[in-house]
Design goal:
The complex is a heterodimer of chains A (about 300) and B (about 375). Chain A has about 300 residues and is of the alpha/beta class. Chain A is built from eleven helices and 14 strands. Chain A has two domains: about 220 residues, Rossmann fold (3-Layer(aba) Sandwich); about 70 residues, Alpha-Beta Plaits. The longest helix of chain A has 16 residues. Chain B has a four-stranded mixed sheet with strand order 2-1-3-4, covered by helices on one side. In chain B, helix 3 links the parallel strand 1 and strand 2. The chains are: A alpha/beta (about 300), B mainly alpha (about 375).
Chain lengths: ~300, ~375
């Protein structure tokens, strides 16, 4: 059974449809990545799942129970790590963890014991008594994450937990999250970093303009492009139109076309060398051709017509 | 309930981590109490005050106890012997008080002056002492009349006589101009009420606005914390901050400025705690209704100064036109000061502040409900 099931979730703010009929599931021991650019609807989705916003339509089920039929029960099962550093900067790391533990329903004694454990796991024991305002960005992010883990939640919602930190600190946090997954925690992870989604998530949902455009494992998403490789052609495509090339669309799918670059994937399972020959015979003077494994960015590009990094 | 306490205690800890808090909680109000108390010092003491008196009863027989009851009926503030040094006067009842009375012999009571006490205190205690003696002699006379000639009177019939309503009584009141609270007796409650309102509005409003900005309120709401628990926790934290300020000023008032806090200190404390509830609820309400922190500070300073002026924190309402007193009834500061002046300056008891307390309670309930209604995360 899935720990989190989201069914046709929708939310509108004024004339803006922030989330439009989004559905997905997260299972125990799985990291589900919700990948999309800023403003795609990731945070609004998390806000509805965690009860901060009421959906206009759709339903959220936590451990099989509709969220709004027993919100306090659902909140006890989940831990939420917000995008912003929602912690008390004047308090120490230990004081923060103990406070959020008590808010999650732990007794003072249990919160204290669990705080000691978490400080060690987050490698913050030696800075436990310092005020959080004196921590580095990475340490603050770790405390921000730890504050959601005191009560050992079965479902963890992470809203871009690595925003604004250096690569080493990011790696530490990602490793910590992998370990959480190993304990059976179901994790919903929103991000706009392609590399994080590729390296961390078992399944990925691509969201843009409030709509879930595609979902699946990384290889399933790559498969949407027609195989495990794409061709990148560099040439002057200013006056060239693939529509005018006879039979081109029967053999290739255009992922992106610009004045200098054309990215295509082969249709069907064909030999790459055959594909290469056909591409070199196109009525343009090709300066360079490269072959690469399709990335999530290519998938996003194919789905939305623009790069995720734009 | 546990979460309300946790939120409140954490908020108090956060408030006290700000160095600026100590200026606004203690230093600034202290300076204003001194300056305004010095500027407002009056020529005499407010009327009907109850200077503390210590009674040393060496008589182990029943008439000693009866006399103590007569003194209490005259509204004397009788001190515990452990507070001997604060007594304005000492009354000594000799060991042979009962024996002499039963033998119809005169007895001398001792009336001793305390250190640093003024003539006004002597007069006030003496008047009450004389009234108590007259009452006691009257009761003894009645008891003796009822007793067979040559017989001795006992405690029970004497107490029965005392319990009866007096056929004639005197209700004395000030004639002419109403008394005006003055000196530190005026400036301490005035400034305490003003700064309680100002601090709890500013701390409350700013905390809510800042925690909304940095996402802490949202984070609280994704925990199994109800909206009401969160609002009550925030108000409780502000009340604790208020209690810290109240305790400091009552202590400073008593020992530094020698303010007579009245015979009913618990009523003074209760009035201030209820007022802190009103101010704390208003602070949460302001934080809920305003978005930007800088705007919150401006609104809170303006609102608290306005309420302080209209409520009588800056000058006694008794010296202004009657309209000002009527306007003050529309502010919680006005009702709080009315109660505090009754207790501190006019020597009234708990019964005299029941109405102001009820009105403050109504202010608190309404502010609390509005804060809960408009609370935004």
């Amino acid at each position: 059974m899935s720990l989190l099931k989201v069914e046709r979730l929708s939310k509108t703010f004024g004339a803006t449809r922030a989330v439009d009929s989004v559905s997905f599931e997260v299972h125990p021991g799985e990291i589900y990545g919700l990948l999309g650019p800023n403003g795609a609807g990731k945070t609004t989705s998390i806000s509805m799942i965690s009860g901060l916003l009421k959906p206009d339509a759709g339903e959220v089920f936590v451990a099989g129970t509709a969220f709004w039929s027993a919100p306090q029960t659902a909140k006890r099962i989940m831990g939420v790590v917000p995008q912003e550093l929602a912690i008390y900067e004047e308090l120490s790391g230990r004081e923060n963890l103990e406070f959020w533990g008590r808010m999650a329903g732990l007794s003072a004694r249990d919160a204290k014991a669990r705080t000691t454990e978490l400080l060690a796991a987050l490698t913050l024991t030696d800075r436990a008594k310092d005020a959080v305002k004196n921590y580095s960005g990475g340490m603050k992010r770790r405390i921000n994450l730890g504050c959601a883990l005191l009560h050992r939640p079965k479902l963890l919602l992470l809203d871009e937990p690595t925003v604004g930190i250096d690569p080493q600190a990011r790696l530490n946090i990602l490793e910590f999250i992998r370990n959480l997954r190993a304990t059976g925690t179901a994790i919903l992870y929103t991000t706009h970093y392609l590399e994080e989604a590729e390296s961390l998530c078992q399944r990925i949902g691509i969201i843009d303009h409030g709509r879930l455009l595609a979902e699946g494992t990384l290889s399933e998403l790559q498969e949407r492009l027609g195989g495990d490789r794409v061709f990148v052609l560099e040439a002057d495509f200013k006056n060239a139109s693939p529509d005018a090339w006879a039979g081109f669309h029967d053999r290739f799918r255009v992922i992106q076309k610009s004045e200098q670059q054309l990215i295509v994937a082969a249709v069907g399972a064909r030999d790459p060398s055959d594909c290469l020959k056909e591409l070199l015979n196109l009525p343009v003077r090709v300066e360079n051709v490269s072959l690469k494994r399709p990335s999530l960015n290519d998938v996003f590009l194919q789905l939305t017509g623009r790069e995720l990094r734009e | 309930m546990k979460r309300i306490l946790d939120i409140g205690h954490t908020d108090l800890r956060l408030f006290l981590k700000h160095k600026s808090a100590y200026i606004w909680l203690f230093a600034m109000p202290l300076a204003f109490v001194y300056i305004m108390g010095f500027a407002n010092r009056g020529a005499g003491q407010p009327y009907n005050r109850t200077p503390p008196v210590l009674i040393e009863n060496a008589d182990t027989n029943f008439l000693g106890r009866i006399f103590l009851a007569e003194l209490s009926a005259q509204n004397l503030w009788v001190l515990d012997p452990t507070n001997r040094e604060t007594a304005a006067r000492v009354i000594r009842i000799p060991a042979n008080f009962t024996a002499n009375a039963r033998q119809y012999k005169p007895t001398q009571l001792q009336f001793l002056k305390g250190e640093d006490s003024g003539e006004a205190d002597t007069a006030l205690i003496e008047v009450r002492l004389v009234r108590a003696l007259i009452a006691m002699n009257g009761h003894l006379l009645e008891a003796a009349t009822q007793t067979n000639a040559g017989g001795t009177f006992a405690e029970a019939p004497l107490r029965a006589i005392m319990a009866r309503t007096n056929p004639v009584s005197l209700n004395a009141k000030f004639a002419g101009r109403k008394p005006v609270p003055s000196g530190f007796n005026f400036s301490l409650p005035g400034n305490l009420v003003m700064y309680l309102m100002m601090n709890l509005l500013i701390f409350g409003g700013n905390t809510i606005a800042a925690e909304r900005r940095n996402g802490v309120l949202k984070r609280l709401m994704v925990h199994p914390v109800t909206r009401l628990e969160l609002v009550m926790g925030k108000i409780y934290g502000l009340m604790l901050l208020g209690v810290v300020q109240i305790l400091f000023f009552l202590a400073v008032g008593k020992w530094l400025f020698h303010v007579n806090l009245g015979a009913n200190l618990p009523a003074v404390a209760l009035t201030l705690v209820v007022f802190a509830w009103v101010a704390g609820s208003l602070g949460v309400l302001v934080g809920s209704l305003s978005a930007a922190e800088d705007r919150v500070t401006g609104i809170c300073v303006l609102a608290s100064l306005l309420m302080a002026a209209l409520g009588g924190c800056w000058w006694p309402l008794e010296i202004g036109p009657p309209l000002m007193k009527t306007i003050s009834l529309g502010t919680p500061t006005g009702w709080a000061l009315q109660a505090l002046h009754q207790l501190i300056s006019f020597g009234s008891g708990f019964a005299a502040v029941l109405v102001p307390l009820a009105v403050l309670g109504a202010f608190g309930a309404v502010a609390n409900l509005l804060a809960a209604r408009f609370f935004r995360n």
